[in-house]
Each structure stands twice: as C-alpha cells, then as structure tokens.
Amino acid sequence: MKQLYNYLKAATEGEQKKEKKHDMEVFQKAEELAEEYDIKYDNESFVPDDDELADSVFEAGIDLLSSTGVYCIDTERIIPVDKDDILKSIYSLKELEIGKYREKVPVPERCPVDSTPPVIIGGPMGGTVSEENFLNVHLSSAREPLVQGIYAGVIDKLEGKGIKPKSPFEMYAALKEARLEKLSTRIAGREGLALMGPGTPTISQAYMLVSADELYSESDPQEVSQLDELKTDYETFYKSIYHQEHGNHYLSGQCPIFGGTSIASAPGLAIVDVAETIQAKIVTGASFHVSGAIHVNTNSSSTKEVIWASSLSSIALSRNMNYYKARYYWNQAGCCTDMMFYETAAQAIADTVSGRDILIGPAGARGGTADHSTGLESRFMAEIAHMATDLNLSEANDIVSKIYSKYKDRFTNPPTGKPFDECYVVNSEYDMEPTDEYINLYKSILSEIEDYCGL
C-alpha cells in the first residue's frame, strides 16, 4: 500500500506535460530503443526463437518505462519510475490461486515451451452481450470442463434500455451482471469457479459495489484497467487502493494499439508490452497483467505483427521477470466460422509456447457485436493450448504460419458468423448444446490442427 501511495503522490507532484507530448515521447523512445538494441521485426516469423533478442526487448522495456514514466491524465503529470525500483521488484512473486472450493486453481508461472498448460479463462471478456442472452452466454463457458474461470462481458441494456455511461445506472447494471455471472457457475454445478470482471461499468463505485463475497470475492481477480501506452488515471488508483486494502486479487488489463499514436512498429509494440507489464506490477500493484494488443487497421489481436510482438514480449518476460502474464483474444471473425477458429488457434499456440500463464476469451467480431462468445470457442482455445505444450518454438512457428495462411487475406472482409442464439440450441439453462453445423465445423478445424501438430 505504501508503494501505491508514493506513486499517487508522484501523480500530483511530477513534471507537467500534455498527453500528446507523452504519446510522442513513448513513440520516439520505443523506436530509438529498438534501434539501439538491434530489435528487428522478422516478417517470416510468428514465434521468435532467439533468447538474446528476447533479453534485449526486456532491457528496452525497462529503459522505456524509466525514461518516459507513467502519465496520469487527471493531473497531466508524469509519475517517474526509477530503474533501481524496477530491478528490485521484478524477481519477487506472490503466488496466485484463483477460484475457491473444488474450483480453486493455482496459476503456474510458466516459461517458454513449458509442459504445464496455461490457465484457461472463458467468457466474453468485455465484449458486448445482450441482456436476454447474458446468462446463457456465460453459462455455456461455465459448463466446459477445461474452462477454469469466466471473464464477464458488457451487458448492453438494462430493462431493455441503454445504460448511460458514468451514471448510477451503471451500478444496477454491474449488480445484474455479477449476479448472472455467479448464477451461471451455480447452474453449471461449479460453485467457486473464478470470476473476472465486471465488464460493464466505467466508474469505480460500480466496481467496488460488486466486490463482495457473494459476488466477486477476494479469490476472483477483479478488473483494474490501466490506460494504454504507459498511462494511468485516478480511477485506476481508486480501484487499486480499494482492492489492496481488502486483500482482493485484481488484474491489470491494457490493449496497446499497433499503428496508433505511440506504437509505430512490431519491435516498438513488444517493448511497450514489456514496459506496461512492469507498470502493472510496481505502479498498479496488480496480481497479474493482461495484454490485449490490437492492430489499428483490424482492431484484432490476430495479425502477424501482433502475434510476433506478443510472443516476443512473453518470452522476454518469462525469462527475466517473476510475474503472471495473460492475454486477451480479440478475433475479427464472428463465431461459427473457420476464420474464428483459425485466429484462436494461431494465438493459442504462440502464447502457450511463449510462456503465457493465462489465456482469456476468445471474443468474436472484436467484441463489438453482441453475443459473439460461446463455450465451444473457449473449449477449442483450451484444447489447442494443451496440444501446444508438446511443441518447441520452431515447430510452433511453422504451425502458426500454416494456420495464418488460412485467414491472412480475409481481414478486409471477415466472415460475420453467428451470434450465440444461432450457435446453440437452448431448451433450458440445463439443456443447451452447440448446433450440428457448429460442432461439425469445430471438429473439422480441430482435426486439421491436430494433423499440423502430428497428433
């Protein structure tokens, strides 16, 4: 708590600066460091197999964070982050268990090509979900045995009406979301399954309202989203202070944008991803960090540049820092399409062999179209991750290259797919199954990936 207090003080006393200037400094410094450390993007690679390159990315990430600091948008000041403080903190680790009762899961601290599979978190993970399908969408993931937690979606309406942002209505929406998410675990017979979220609110009051034993307990990692590209705000501090005082697990999530205001290249993205992960640990104090980097042209996490950078940063962090790393999957295609499965497979293989500890999602249609999340998609992600534990980096790279060739030319016109209620036959909360079309497509793509993996 003392460290958090010191960074909050720094947010009110640090150097004043305009946000655009900070963005430009992050942009320029990341590119300078990429050149200084000779970090070059390999257009033929998806999963880098170069320990020296990974170590250079980690060093560059430390240099970026210590040179630019973290920008607080509420005070328009820089929070300086001392390099010595970074080096003191990177090797300490608080062991992480999520969920409770029979659903308690110890999160492994994985390394590259680790034989232990990553923890699998299903659910819409902040993607839009309709009010009428909210329970069933989450229930479909809770029913999957390989899913070890549920990450909430954003409920689109309350009593059929839109939810006014930053209003007390968000508190009612957060309560409904949390109660339905909790109910889904009970109907599935999995009381204690880890919950992550909430996904709907934008104000700290609503987040804190549902932080209670009967909704989100201390064993449920609660969401504290850092702002992208080495920024923070008072909302982040509000939630971090609250969770630390109450002994709750909380996650720090960020979605840096490749091609955006602060990231010009794949090496720059890898460096920023490392810097933001360190920020999550020492400035925000989160139990683990979730990266959800996306490409500015597609708003998806499944492009070649993003996969390469995310793999490289994960290897860098796994080799040089004791901390838990997770990743969001923002797929461009919709559910019940071959492209959606291919996008998930490429990312899950790359992340698993690169040492990610937790995989989250996937969300179809980039999370922007309602109800593009299903338990079958999360099951597929889990099965692919388990397959990938038998691969080395070179083998994984070759397989991801084959998978990527299946969808690389489809980003400009991705298949829209089908929403949840067209993917599942729902007779009741206790009787729901994927349609024959959906399950047959799943089996076909899974068999194809098994062939690639030599299984």
Automatic annotation (TrEMBL):
Pathway: One-carbon metabolism; methanogenesis from methylamine
One annotated GO biological process: methylation
Any one Pfam family match given in the protein's UniProt record, by short name: MtmB
EC number(s) reported in the record: 2.1.1.248
InterPro entries referenced in this protein's UniProt entry, alphabetically: MtmB_MeTrfase (IPR008031), MtmB_sf (IPR036655)
Superkingdom classification of source: Archaea
Record's keyword terms, sorted: Methyltransferase, Pyrrolysine, Transferase
Reactions performed catalytically: Co(I)-[methylamine-specific corrinoid protein] + methylamine + H(+) = methyl-Co(III)-[methylamine-specific corrinoid protein] + NH4(+)
Similarity section: Belongs to the monomethylamine methyltransferase family.
Protein name: [methylamine--corrinoid protein] Co-methyltransferase
Species annotation: Methanohalobium evestigatum (strain ATCC BAA-1072 / DSM 3721 / NBRC 107634 / OCM 161 / Z-7303)
